[in-house]
Structure to design on (560 residues):
């Protein structure tokens, strides 16, 4: 769950911190107090687009920090799969927004936008007006039904994705190899020429690198000989060579080392140096003796290297790549020498994979149809609980082979009728904004036992509702809050009264500047805030009494 939110230098917020709790967390406040900034800051931390204009005037940066407590083993496993850290079962997510860039970190480690998106999908589910509108899309409706169907369907879909991929690949190969006899003859002849050319070269893996080294050494033979000879002379035991100097130094130290133990240690060191230098000079002399320039060998190496480079220019950047090209050319030869058998085999692959895919589509469709009926029944009851007294809800599925894809062949449609006698219509044709909010809430309630995401945020859940409907929504959120952490911004006292934790967002003016702050209410403060939401500018005794009754009624409902 989301334990805390810390915001600094963001829009109207100087610095604010809030500790959320389990159950239903309600956020209220006057219009324009900055409620949208709070939800917006959570979105920013989770990777939403950041505008530098959000940085508070006079500040160098804005900071948002979220702390999640992760208890569910499935969530922990999913986070570990992203190779992201946990600190004592907590995810500390921080985003710093600066003038020209922003940096996101998870438990101190910098993360990419993609990692942040994947992490947010594990930890939190945010529902605002945009998410409600997504209910109108068939893809979202299918996603909801599949989530309800659960693991058995997920396994079938994974199998279908693999088989469908094989089917499409076989189809592509079949299409690309639909060639006439003349084209096949030319391609086969070319492949035979290429195979012969490569085969005659008798290439050895790694040969090109060794040839290059040998060639470079031969090209610089004279330079190598001069440098080695000079080095040998400088370290030798003739004239002014280092060996001669070390020998003289050793004789000098030997003449006095008997008088001082320290000098004896120096003598041993010089003996070691003299021994190493002797070994070095012998090896250098042997190397010099072996140096010779063989014109025939040089010509042979150069010719071989030119051949290898010629083949590399045509067939690949290394000997290994050339040999791989040869193997592929050999496959082409074999394919075209018995083209009819090849085509027959390919057609067989297409048909076999298609049959397997269609069989899986059929099985997937049956699972969806079964779950669509159950989900429709549960949604019918959930909508009734949300004051859709005369509503009829239905999930309609249609499937055909022509629509087969990696997700199956089904096409889905959520249908709703809100008035008796009216035909079922698609949500886009019949549901208002407020109705979409309630439908989403009904879905979340039905899916609560299957949803691994613990924290749900509802923004504008009360759009277009009031009165008895507001109470129904409030009751439903109270039920959902028993198994999930809910964070909800609302304008309705009926919903606010159901809060397990109630926070107020306030805007004040300090030193000529507007400031937004958030704090948790308790006791009489909660009643007064409910009274403010019920009444006008003046909080009357009647409003306070009404607020107390509303809070008491909500308490009884939660413990029902």
């Amino acid at each position: 769950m989301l334990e805390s939110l810390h915001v600094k230098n963001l829009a109207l917020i100087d610095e604010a911190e809030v500790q959320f709790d389990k159950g239903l967390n309600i956020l209220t406040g006057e219009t324009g107090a900055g409620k949208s900034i709070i939800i917006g800051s959570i979105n920013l931390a989770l990777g939403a687009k950041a505008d530098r204009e959000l940085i508070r005037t006079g500040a160098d940066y804005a900071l948002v920090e979220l702390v999640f407590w992760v208890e569910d083993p499935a969530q922990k496993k999913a986070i570990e799969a992203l190779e992201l850290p946990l600190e004592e079962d907590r995810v500390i997510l921080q985003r710093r927004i600066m003038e020209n860039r922003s940096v996101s970190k998870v438990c101190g480690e910098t993360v990419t936008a993609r990692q942040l998106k994947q992490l947010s999908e594990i930890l939190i589910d945010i529902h605002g007006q945009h998410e409600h509108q997504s209910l109108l899309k068939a893809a979202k409706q299918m996603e909801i039904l599949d989530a309800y169907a659960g693991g058995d369907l997920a396994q079938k879909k994974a199998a279908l994705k693999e088989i469908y991929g094989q089917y499409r690949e076989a189809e592509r190969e079949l299409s690309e190899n639909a060639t006439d006899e003349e084209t096949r003859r030319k391609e086969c002849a070319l492949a035979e020429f290429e195979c012969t050319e490569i085969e005659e070269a008798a290439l050895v893996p790694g040969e090109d690198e060794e040839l290059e080294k040998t060639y470079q050494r031969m090209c610089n033979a004279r330079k190598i000989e001069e440098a080695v000879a000079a080095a040998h002379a400088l370290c030798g035991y003739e004239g002014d060579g280092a060996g001669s100097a070390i020998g003289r130094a050793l004789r000098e130290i030997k003449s006095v080392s008997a008088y001082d133990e320290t000098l004896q240690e120096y003598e041993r060191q010089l003996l070691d140096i003299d021994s190493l230098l002797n070994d070095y000079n012998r090896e250098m002399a042997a190397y010099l003796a072996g140096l010779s320039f063989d014109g025939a060998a040089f010509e042979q190496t150069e010719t071989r290297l030119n051949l290898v480079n010629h083949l590399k220019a045509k067939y690949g950047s290394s000997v290994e790549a050339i040999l791989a090209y040869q193997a592929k050319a050999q496959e082409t030869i074999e394919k075209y020498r018995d083209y009819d058998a090849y085509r027959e085999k390919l057609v067989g692959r297409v048909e076999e994979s298609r049959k397997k895919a269609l069989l899986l589509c059929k099985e997937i469709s049956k699972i969806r149809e079964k779950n669509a009926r159950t989900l429709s029944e549960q949604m019918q009851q959930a909508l009734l609980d949300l004051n859709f007294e005369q509503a009829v809800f239905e999930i309609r599925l249609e499937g055909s082979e022509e629509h087969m894809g990696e997700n199956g062949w089904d096409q889905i449609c959520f249908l709703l009728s809100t008035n008796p006698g009216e035909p079922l219509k698609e949500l886009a044709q019949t549901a208002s904004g407020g109705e979409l909010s309630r439908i989403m809430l009904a879905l979340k309630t039905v899916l609560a036992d299957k949803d691994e995401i613990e924290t749900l945020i509802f923004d504008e859940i009360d759009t277009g509702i009031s009165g008895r409907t507001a109470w129904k929504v409030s009751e439903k959120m109270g039920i959902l809050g028993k198994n999930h952490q809910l964070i909800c911004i609302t304008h309705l006292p009926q919903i606010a009264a159901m809060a397990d934790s109630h926070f107020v967002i306030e805007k004040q003016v300090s030193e000529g500047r507007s400031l937004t702050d958030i704090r948790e209410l308790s006791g009489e403060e909660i009643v007064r805030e409910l009274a403010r939401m019920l009444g006008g500018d003046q909080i009357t005794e009647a409003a306070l009494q009404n607020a107390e009754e509303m809070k008491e009624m909500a308490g009884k409902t939660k413990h029902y």
